[in-house]
Specification:
This protein is mainly α. The chain has eight helices and two strands, in the order H-H-H-H-H-H-H-E-E-H. It starts with a helix and ends in a 16-residue tail after the last helix. About 30% of the residues are buried.
Length: about 170
């Protein structure tokens, strides 16, 4: 069973976590990635913003209003390449805090019950999904991207660790 209070607790902390980790870091750190076709911390924060603006709450509303009669819109996983262009990490962190606060207000306004979490919608790739699964995925998505950012930052500093590399498996992932 999905515990909405626990999911919300993680979702609420993500902006502050990323702000504490990334605000004020040199551009070389926030733009570092793991190679061609991978994302930097800058890209990830932009991706999280886009998800809050376009994906999580709108999909929850579709489940509540239409059930499986209306499939979710496909999600553009690379919209941040367009949307973040010309912005700074500070601007993205501030925008993320704003959109996440709005998303959490919208989530609270839904006044979801345990029965609501069992309601179903239609994902364009997976088919039937529950609202609880959608919300749990939102929290896991945040956590996965926090881990990804930590890994990218570790790899950016990795060349300087010398023999300690043997004790730092994150550098091999």
């Amino acid at each position: 069973m999905v515990d909405l209070a626990e999911i919300r607790a993680l979702l609420e902390r993500t902006p502050a976590c990323l702000d504490a980790l990334l605000r004020g870091l040199p551009r070389s750190w926030v733009m570092a990635n793991e190679g061609t076709g991978t994302w930097s911390a800058f890209d990830i924060v932009g991706h999280l913003i886009h998800g809050d603006e376009i994906d999580w709450i709108p999909r929850a509303q579709i489940v509540l209003e239409h059930g499986e009669a209306r499939a979710f819109e496909p999600f553009d996983r690379f919209a941040q390449e367009r949307d973040s262009r010309g912005k700074t990490m500070t601007q993205l962190l501030e925008r993320f805090a704003e959109v996440r606060a709005a998303s959490l207000r919208a989530l609270d306004d839904m006044r979801l019950t345990p029965d609501d979490l069992e309601r179903t919608g239609k994902h364009p790739d997976f088919g039937r999904v529950t609202l609880g699964e959608l919300l749990a995925t939102w929290a896991v998505h945040d956590a996965a991207h926090i881990a990804q950012i930590a890994r990218v930052l570790a790899k950016h500093a990795g060349p300087g660790v010398g023999p300690w590399r043997a004790y730092l498996p994150v550098l091999e992932r």
